[in-house]
Amino acid sequence: MIHSAEFIPPLIGGFLDQTREYAVICTDPEGAVVAWRGAAELIFGYSQEEALGMSLSRLFTREDQARGLDRHELEVARSNARSEDDRWHVRKDGTRIWVTGSIDAIRDPGGELLGFVKVMRDRTDLRTQQEAADKQLAACLAGRDRTRAFLRTLGHELRNTLAPLQSAGHIVQRTNQDPRAAKAVEIMFGQLDALRRLADDLMDASRFDTGKIRMELQPGDLAAVVRDASLGFQEAAAHKGVKLQALLPPGPLPVALDVQRFQQVLLNLFGNALKYTPAGGSIWAKATLEDGEVVLRIEDTGIGIDAQTLPRIFELFTREAGAADLEPGGLGIGLAVVREIVELHGGSVQARSAGRGKGAEFTVRLPAAVPHPNRQASITP
Ligand code: ADP
């Protein structure tokens, strides 16, 4: 290992001769170039002869010169000993380059200013990449805004058609005694409900991250809401040949709840469990208190979710191939709405699945409104 200080000047000299990345420029106290070393010629295009005596300001863009940034940089270095800046500079041929650099004020032992040393590096490549990434981001955000506007319009249009259809159904119901008509109207109302839920989800999805989804949180009982939702799905489950069981504690599970909003969560989670569980399968809804949280698990023995899709399952428009085969009509909006609403309740939601064909489990956690001793779940009829 070399220790002697005598090797330092040749090392520094060698660096200044060989570097192709760093320009090292020395100026007098007024900013006129007195040394033009390192990659200064390569980066800025001026030969040493041309550069000597030239004002450092020449390297600044016209706009920056007009704003006085060239003088400001020297002033800052003069008063703070150092100034660091990344900005566009101009080469001799007029092309612009993105340069990162610093300038140090050098003083003699008596404090007298000798001049400045500026070290600069051409990072136009980085800056170009960054600008391309910024443009891509802006395009993505614009695309997201267009998607939002589209979802909002679609939800709106859908809602507008529902009210007259509902009224027409009621008129048929009142004026027609034929049992076949009654059955047809019943089917119609069922489908209208599904469309209304879809319209609600579309409208909500268009408002994600905008702070425009309002929650009216009131003291509520999660057990009661889950019990009602599970009862509401019993008939459809029985019709499909799927067993649906709610395992709930005898007493309430107190949480701050926007009941209407939370019903949307349950309709999506129960609806999915039923949609993606073939006949002969089972669904369980379990709710308990665990360490200050009310925890709801909706578990099924259905088609499951593969490991690749699972991490993105709550993102808008995510659908798994198996699910698309089974239910071609889905949009991949419901779970995104579920996550948004649960989070607006101060909670979290997670999905688990051992893989395709191995069932799925969705766990919703909400802060318990009142501290409670742990209770065991029991089966309600
Ligand atoms: P949709 O059901 O309309 O496609 P969702 O956002 O509700 O939209 O669900 C997104 C995707 O998550 C579904 O397409 C499906 O791939 C998967 N998924 C949701 N719930 C389940 C479930 N219980 N079992 C298996 N896959 C599910």
Main attributes?
381 residues; alpha+beta; five-stranded antiparallel sheet; 13 strands; elongated; disordered C terminus; binds adenosine-5'-diphosphate
- The topology string of helices and strands comes to HEEHHHHEEEHHEHEEHEEHHEEE
How does the major sheet shape up?
Answer: 6 strands, mixed
Could you say which small molecules are bound to this protein?
adenosine-5'-diphosphate
Low-pLDDT stretches: 372-381
Task: Calculate the mean pLDDT score and round it.
Answer: 91
Q: Based on CA inertia axes, which overall geometry fits?
A: elongated
Q: Report the portion of residues in β strands.
A: 15-25%
Strand line-up across the major sheet? 11-12-10-9-7-13
Helix/sheet category: alpha+beta
Instruction: Assign a percent range to the helix content.
Output: 40-55%
Number of strands: 13
The total of helices stands at: 11
Radius of gyration: 34 Å
Q: What features would you describe in this structure?
A:
This protein has about 375 residues and is α+β, with helices and mostly antiparallel strands. It is built from eleven helices and 13 strands. The protein has helices at about 10-20, 40-45, 50, 60-65, 70-80, 125-175, 180-205, 220-240, 260-275, 320-325, 335-345, and strands at about 20-25, 35-40, 80-90, 95-105, 115-120, 220, 245-250, 255, 280-290, 295-300, 350, 360-365, 380. The strands form three sheets. It has a six-stranded mixed sheet with strand order 11-12-10-9-7-13, covered by helices on one side. The chain has a five-stranded antiparallel sheet with strand order 2-1-5-4-3, sandwiched between helices. A two-stranded antiparallel ribbon has the order 6-8. β1 and β2 (about 35-40) form a beta hairpin. The protein is elongated and about 105 Å long. The relative contact order is 0.08. Mean pLDDT is about 90; it is low at about 370-380. The structure holds adenosine-5'-diphosphate. Adenosine-5'-diphosphate (ADP) binds near residues 332 and 334.
